[in-house]
Write the structure tokens for this entry.
Amino acid sequence: MTHLLLLAPVVVPALGAVIYALAGWRRATAWVSAASAALVLATAIATSAAVVNDDPHTVLAGLLRVDALSAFMLVVIGAIAFLATAATPDHLRTEIIAGRASSRTAARHCLLVQLFLAAMALAVLAANLGMLWVAVEATTIVTAFLVGQRRTRPAVEAAWKYVVICSAGIALALLGTFLLNYASQHTAPGAGLNWAELAASAHTLDPGVTRIAVVLLIVGFGTKAGLAPLHAWLPDAHSQAPAPVSALMSGVLLSVAFYAILRVKVIADAALGTGFARTLLVVIALASLALSASLLLAQRDYKRMLAYSSIEHMGLLALGAAVGGRLAIAAVLLHILGHGLAKSVLFLGSGHILQITGTSRIDQVRGLAARQPVLAGCFGLGVLALIGLPPFSLFASELGIARAGFTAGLGWAMAAALVLVLVIAAALVTHTSRMVLGAAPDGPGAATASPRMNVIAGAALVVGLLACAAIGVTTGPLHPLLSLAADLLAGTP
Amino acid sequence: MSHDLYVQLLDLACGVLLLTAVLVLWRRELAVIIRVFALQGLALAALVAVLAAHEGSIELGAVAVGILVLRAGVLPALLRRALAAAGEERRETRPLVNVASSLLAAAVLTLLGYAVSQPLVALAPSPATQAVAVGMTVVLIGFFVLVTRRRALSQLVGFLLMDNGITAVGFLTTSGVGLVVELGVSLDVLLAVLVLQILTTRMRATFGDTDLDELRELHD
Amino acid sequence: MNLVHAGLGAAVAVGVLSALLALITPRRLRLVPVGVGTVLVGAFGVLAGAVAVAGQAYSVEIPALLPLFGVSFAVDALSGLFLVVTGGVAIAVAVYGIGYARHGLDGRGVQAVLPLFVLAMLLVPAAASVGTFLVCWELMALTSLVLVLAEHQQRDTVAVAGRWYAVMTHLGMVAILIGLLVLVAHSADDSFPALRAAATNLSPVVANVVFVLTLVGFTSKAGILPLHAWLPRAHPEAPSHVSALMSAAMVNLGIYGIARVGFDLLGGGPRWWWLLVLVLGALSAVYGILQAAMSSDLKRLLGNSTTENMGLVLVGVGAAGLFASAGDDVLAGVALSAALLHVINHAAFKTLLFLSAGSVLHATGSRDLDALGGLRAGMPVTTWGFGLGALAASALPPGTAFVSEWLLLQALIHGLPASGAATAIVMPVAVAAVALTAGLAVATFVKAFGVGFLARPRSSAAANATESPVSMLAGMGLAAVACVTLALVPSVVLPAVGSASTMTLGTAQPAVSGQVTLQLNGVAGALSPLLLTVALLVVSVVLVGAVRLIAARRARRTARLWDCGAGPLSPRMEYTATSFAEPLQRVFDDVVQPEQDIDVTHHQESSYLVQAVEYRQRVPDRLERRLYEPVLRLITAWGSVARRLATGSVHRYLGYGFYTVCGLLILLVVIR
Amino acid sequence: MLSLWRKIRRTGRVAEPAPSQPSEELSVAAELGGSVQIRHVDAGSCNGCEVEIGSAFGPVYDAERYGARLVASPRHADALLVTGPVTRNMAEPLRRTYEALPEPKFVVAVGDCARNCGVFAEAYGVTGAVRDVVPVDVEIAGCPPRPEEIVEGLRKLTGR
Amino acid sequence: MNALGVIGGVLQFVLVVAGSPFLVGVMRQVRARLEGRAGAGIGQPWRDLRKLLRKESITPRGTSEVFRIAPLVLVATTVVVAIVAPFVTTASAVDSVADLFAVVALLALGTVALALAGLDTGTAFGGMGASREMTIIALVEPTLLVSIFALSVRVGSTNLGAIVTSTLQDPARVISPVSLLAAVALVVVIIAETGRLPVDNPSTHLELTMVHEAMILEYAGRDLGLVEWASAMRLTAFLGLLANLFVPWGIATAATPVALLAGVAAFVIKVVLLGVLLSAGEVFLAKLRLFRVPELLAGSFLLSLLAVTASFFLAQPH
């Protein structure tokens, strides 16, 4: 049973991929992708329940392992994948009608997305740092063609940058992994790269080697998480990828990479004391925040705007991770979920906007609310959620991170971060309001799109926002999972 | 195998590793660079083989064979295929940092690699760990190639240099990280190169050129 | 049974329910239930507040809500007072809104958010932990933002106003957040009792940081200088009943925050805090009313007047803090009572004024005073309402603000015993500021009422204006009743003000008491607004009688206006609001710095012949020019320079990583 | 200032002694009780009469001592002081000014032109004498009338 | 409310209502004499009033109740002030109204009513007068309040009776810098408030320079009479206040006939004296241009501010 439960998140999407490979894109298979995501979500919930009631489980000779943190990440993957895949059929259908895609590309899209899901599930379930690395790099390879799906010049450019920068960055993480392996082989032979054993023996690791390893790991996985300095692939890739893929990348992929950083931080803290990783993360976090603030100010493309906002939120997560402690970690995890939901809603929404207006430039989108009230409402509320307004959960998590930071003596960093967040919020609000508000334009092309959205696509947006708001009001059943995971990472049971 | 021979062979392999990395920086002909890269794959395989012989591990020997096939065979072949399609652009004419400066930079990076490796050596001094500095240097040089070379193919080689270096470090410090991971890593690298190769082709189709610094449609 | 609990609980339940109702009911049936629901929310708020003011304490914790924090509420006398004010305003506004919303504001979103906005405003003063406070504060910001944007499709300026509002309110939020979190960092947890306990042995530096930061945040909400810029933008652009809610209820919560943090959580503090508060208040009062005096946009005028009134309240709060820090509890009580009373009074008359302005806007489609006039003929009730409000706002007897400003001046006058050198300089300046404010307020509201409602119509829209529907008039009526009551018998709210101020300052007895005559306890001072009004009425009646008696019984005759014998006077000959304000504008030329623009168009045939002369003048917010524009320019420059960070070159991008990694490795080597 | 003070002292009172009260008083003017506010209307005068009116209210003749006073608005006035023949353009304004006066109201026609158009009689721009436009209560003859005569005329209204 | 206050209130009412036209008469007479004229006699204002009250009122078309009520409000506010302020006795008929702020505000209320009436007519002159009057009052109000503040600070009360009583008890205060500064400031304020030269010319007929007159151009008959009467009473009240705040001697502190008589006499003498001074002073002045008036008022504001600061610093127990 446990085997089944643990393998399902990897195997189900893989099977989905097989179906698409064999059957292609047709009416019957359109919803396979959503169904598989739903199954992932269901198993994630079941796993969570199991984890909360029981100890961590290991399967496949110790290759896969699930604890509260993995379970939580699975929930995140499942939930956001469900949203994204539910909106996919409508998206692809519109693309095909518009002649920007064929049923072949649609099938390949779905296939790759399924593989993408499998890789991410594998990443969070991996019991071993090496496996994790393999899975994360696999996501890069799988998504490369999704980013470049449209084969236009910008799409190819984005794909190239995406693969090169991510591969280079993640190669650093591989180096770090080897070095950590070296250190652990030396002090606790047999521990290898296994999380549980590494964490248990971390205090004996050689600090000299571990320092280098940690720096390389954090910078390396930080690349994939969209943190400075190797963040630059993110806006390009997100702006070129199809909307559901952008949603998945921003909502889950970044978080999965960040999950690796969280794991590494536990080891670093035990081996080097809290100060080392904290300093590094604070610097990286502030750099990411400053960068996204700087580039958001004069942003002209709304998909890039959302991408930079992802960098911002990853920076906040890094800040939370730097702070450490139960509150901060719980807040970070909640933030991962909340940001994932809000951001995927926004990317899905931006996909619709792109389909309606045919442009991704902010200054060419006007009076959205007058034309598409539901879409504009979701987009506007999503941005408000992103800047951390209640009832959306990002408020609680940002507050949690900030409070923990101030209590932990990182007041100045927190204050600086909050000021940057303010600048970012101002930029986001300004850009978004230009798109959403105002009277409907009456130029050419204004009346091409039908004012009503596809019901399911609209529902995906609304449900995403509602979920984000709901966990902002109360985490309810997620609460024990969150606190368990926080205990796990904060080191104090 | 005697200890001295082991050390000499190890150092020889490492020397070739480093030399090939520097040569990649030096040469402009892409065809030559690919050949040098194949040579480096050979050196890496030799390195692992030496380690295998030293430890008497058959498993490691098998890995060495795998590396030989992948890094001296498959990957250079892939690169050559990409080059064949490239047509005119067979030279790295104008790197962002010129060759002389690149070599100087390589020297600095070597020093850095050496300095960084000191804690690693200190943890378990042995001929193998002392050679880690070479692996580190190759990683850094690979990264440097990525940053400074304009041709898509050169970047691909840079990425692979990094990877070779990392592999070298991995084997010099410990004898691998487990078969599954090892395989996974190799597969990933192979796939990444494949993907990049396909992208190179697409890029040529859409841009008609592979000067990467001209890829600036996406910017703020 | 705890009535506070019941009241708050019912308010939450009804608020959420009416929001849901608004979402599911069809447009036609939406307004009345939402209106009634909002009235009930307000009424329950008033109930809870009144009970709390009467002395029933209440607190509750709900750990399940708000992840990571849990919420906790507690209502004491200070909270209670603000609950009552907010609830009261909400009742009048909600009744008014039923009729007002019929014209394009009956959308699902706006109607659902209205009760939630009221609810959020009720919960802010009830919050008893930092997390709860901030979440309610932000909910209030969010809901109000949505409401401000309600008419964004009609006017482009709405979006601009919304942007300003969103950014400024977020700025304030960040300041409050940092301030409160610094405090939390020094205490056991984030509940108010814990903070109170921690504040006793807080280092002065930390306390200063906390106070200054929260002050920045709260003053930005209260529309105090220099963070007022959103207010004269957002208030005119919001639907009028929302403006009323914002101007009469929401800004008060900024004052509440200052009182809560400064007096309650931090327990007083050094003198300079309160000097700062007082100076900010005085500056805002003068600046606000000066801008209002120059404004010819009716709602902008009212918005600026809000800045003025909040400034006056802050003068009171600052004086209270100053006296308290000097150990003079009696005067501190008087000053704080004056401030709180002014909060109540302002809420009453500003509601009435905004609702009347909304009624005018609704009838004429214009809020430009220069295009109004003569509304008394078509809209007698609105005219009466606005007149009453204007009387109250101009601090003349028998208006409401007169009483509270009198009280404020009493506190300042008796400040002599508590004086130091700083006080001796500040007090006269404060009085001068209050006095100047009072004088300008008179001019401003004479302009607003006289130009807008009296005289003859200046546009056909004004000439054809008809009275608003009954529900709108009823809402205005409620506010008017409150205004009259507060003006004549302010003693009805004195117990509330007294218990709130004694609780806040920790003093023994309320500073002001009395039934008919307001009597200061501990210092000399008495005033009876009721007797004053009665005296005026009696004298008037006697006068009418006497005039009838001695004057010849000639009938009054109606005649044409004296037009110097020439043709009839056209409306264009009338004085407009702009011309009315012109002398004042000249007087304060150096402060307001109007911008004038003269375009002379010449005839084609000859450049000596003038075809048309166009004259434009606007009075910009000078502070904005000096303070905001450089910052905005700087940010724009930052944004355009920063774009070079992302040129699109993949080498550059990789270079970032390469140099960072090399740098980090070198660092690791160096610091070993 | 001091020089002005010296001047005042040197000059002293310049008002001539009041002549005896004119015999006839308008019976209707009793209602005014010694106080007449006057609005002056120039209906087309050559300004000769204006100069004399100015003198009448100057310090020497001091019409004010009898209770007469010039005011700015016809609403404040009890009497109109009309000079000149009524020109076509001024006929309507004169009528309106008369209407603007509150009851009881009086009209004083000053000068020959006002009484019978004087030299302007039958001129193309002249409507007629004042009495042709509004009822006249007092007429003061002269071209222009002397200030004493004007004062005398006004005293008929004030009764002082 | 005590006997002294009630008797005083009645006496003051009678005095101000009946006497104020005579005050205007005296002032006009003084002016006439200084100009070398004979003058109409001090009874002329009463004659004017009597006549005006007999005449018909006119309501211009298009005006509202505000126009009709304004004169009433103007008179009522002034009468209330006349009753409660300490002119003849230190006690007030309605003590809780005899507050300086209340009195100032009441007088301002009257002005506001008139300004609204001016606006209500909708003529250019009405608006112009209202605008100018409001500009002046906006500047006068602060000066007034601040000078009052200067006087009240040392007494610790804004009750007029209390201030007067305290000056009676401590005569040395009268020659303190505070008093002098405040007095000068108040004089300027009173000149502005009552529309005398150089701020406004009460006898101008030139519309472009009028302030007060412009607002009341439409009033006729009974209404005009009330307005004129109220102006006279306001002048009396202001002069009375000025006199008793700075030179309170002679005011009745007890309800004996002798004291009351002395109070009445002192009040009449002081007010007439001030009136004579004022009108004599006017002879020497020309009207200021409208936009020079604020300079004058700003000057007086500065004086009053100095007075307050002085009162604070002089009271410092250094």
About this structure: Chain A has 19 helices and two strands.
